[in-house]
Automatic annotation (TrEMBL):
GO terms for biological process: methylation. This is Methyltransferase domain-containing protein. It comes from the Bacteria. One of its GO terms (molecular function) is methyltransferase activity. Keywords: Methyltransferase, Transferase. The keyword Transferase applies. Residues 54-149 form the Methyltransferase domain. The lineage of its organism: Bacteria, Pseudomonadati, Bacteroidota, Sphingobacteriia, Sphingobacteriales.
Length: 222
């Protein structure tokens, strides 16, 4: 058995890699979105069952591990996948209490899933991908989630028909910035509701933040 602080490194430099701003990412997020991104994730965590197996894909700096440990200080087996080596290193310093965490340095589309999970958490992950990559990643995670399992999803949300002008301008600015800094491959935000609808997921809880620009959904696999 590996030590909870050990990491498996699987990738080199890759698109959608936040290494250049890893140490400043949380600060930048709070400067722009205040606590909206945090709240969208934290308010879902109460749904995590005790003694469950959890896959966190694109976990960033790992602060969510400490929030999970506040609810379940032990009994969880967590697979933590992050493409940024620097963010992964920050995550390994988090206090996970007695939960078992396997840290894996990999892109979401490259990670070899070897188990079935009770819960999958993807927070602000799919906004990085082109439309064709979204289908690929969704399909892999869908196959890894147990029947009746929960998918805690949160991401930016914009509807061209009803969205506000400032949201569209902010999205353009974000994609331009992250294209330069992190080689982000997406050029536009692709909403993912259709993926969950086609796979017959049941939305148990939906919430909006930052004037509707951030959406979180607790889905259950049927």
């Amino acid at each position: 058995m590996r030590h909870p602080g050990d990491a498996i490194y699987l990738t080199a430099m890759h698109n959608n890699n936040y290494d250049p701003i890893a140490r400043y990412y949380d600060v930048l997020s709070r400067l722009v979105f205040f606590r909206a991104q945090l709240s969208a994730q934290i308010e879902q965590l109460i749904c995590i069952p005790a003694n469950g197996t959890i896959l966190i894909a694109g976990g960033g700096t790992g602060w969510v591990l400490e929030e999970i440990a506040k609810i379940h200080p032990s009994g969880l087996r967590i697979t933590y996948v992050e493409i940024s080596a620097k963010m992964l290193d920050l995550s390994k310093k988090r206090d996970v209490k007695s939960n078992q965490v396997s840290y894996i340095h990999a892109a979401a589309e490259d990670f070899k899933i070897g188990t079935d999970y009770d819960v999958i958490i993807t927070a602000f992950l799919f906004d990085n991908f082109r439309a064709e990559k979204i289908g690929l990643v969704f399909g892999r995670f869908h196959a890894a989630l147990k029947s009746g399992g929960l998918w805690l999803f949160s991401d930016f949300y914009y509807n061209a028909g009803s969205g506000k002008h400032w949201q569209r301008y902010l999205l353009k600015a974000m994609y331009l910035f992250f294209k330069r800094i992190s080689r982000i491959e997406a050029r536009d935000l692709i909403n993912t509701e259709h993926c969950f609808e086609e796979a017959l997921y049941l939305p148990l809880k939906t919430a909006y933040y930052y004037s509707g620009f951030i959406k979180s959904v607790v889905y259950q696999k049927s």
